[in-house]
Amino acid sequence: MTLELRSCTYSYRPWAAPVLDNLDYTLPDGLTILLGPNGAGKSTLLKLAASVHLPRRGTVTLDGLASRSRDYRRAVAWMPQHITAMSHLTAREQVAYTGWLKGMSRRDAWDRAATALARVDLAARADTKAGRLSGGQLRRVGVASALVHGARVMLLDEPTAGMDPRQRRVFRDVLGSLTEDVRVLLSTHDVADLAEESDSVTVIDDGRVIHTGTTSAFLAHAPAGTPSGRTAEAAYTALSESGRDL
Fold this sequence. Notes:
Strand content: 15-25%
Structural class: alpha/beta
CATH architecture: 3-Layer(aba) Sandwich
CATH topology: Rossmann fold
Mean pLDDT: 88
Distance between the termini: 32 Å
CATH superfamily: P-loop containing nucleotide triphosphate hydrolases
Order of helices and strands: EEEHEEHEHHHEHEEEHH
CATH class: Alpha Beta
Largest sheet: 6 strands, mixed
Radius of gyration: 18 Å
């Protein structure tokens, strides 16, 4: 299973400078953290990978499936930064509705919504109105919605924004339980989201991928003598500064 962006260029207006320009990227296995400052192109990369946008030039494929195809869109799930609670629906109904939109039958979507909620530790809240869930619980509903139709790739845009430390920990545990059979790309501008469970790190700046590799390879960029607990921050700073010199 290989998700690839090849020679991708994208701008939001034909006359505007590209947000991404001739970008090549292959999503690694497991959980990958996508780091970069605001405006670096993280959300745009995710939207191209999710087929929310199509590249102006270049290709986006999953095992040869073009991103504009129905099979591609069924295999790839996108969770935007802001999850909207359908306040008149229960958590299970909201997840099932997403499955139906992805082409599942109503019965299959309803049955698999329960399984998806259990995978994110929300089975006990299945019948709770979505509008009454906490922010952290609503984000887990977003993950369940991404899982309900059997997605093989999950693209998460700033999923931990606004979460307190406990909610972040629960969310990371949920993601860690998924990556045996689902590839996850999680974007953030906060290096605190670089959990021990992440397998790889990609750094993007000014629309260019300036680093991608294992988590240990990323941390190795921290200068010698970096204080304990600040290794990820130091590695990110070092890469960002070197990337701007390119």
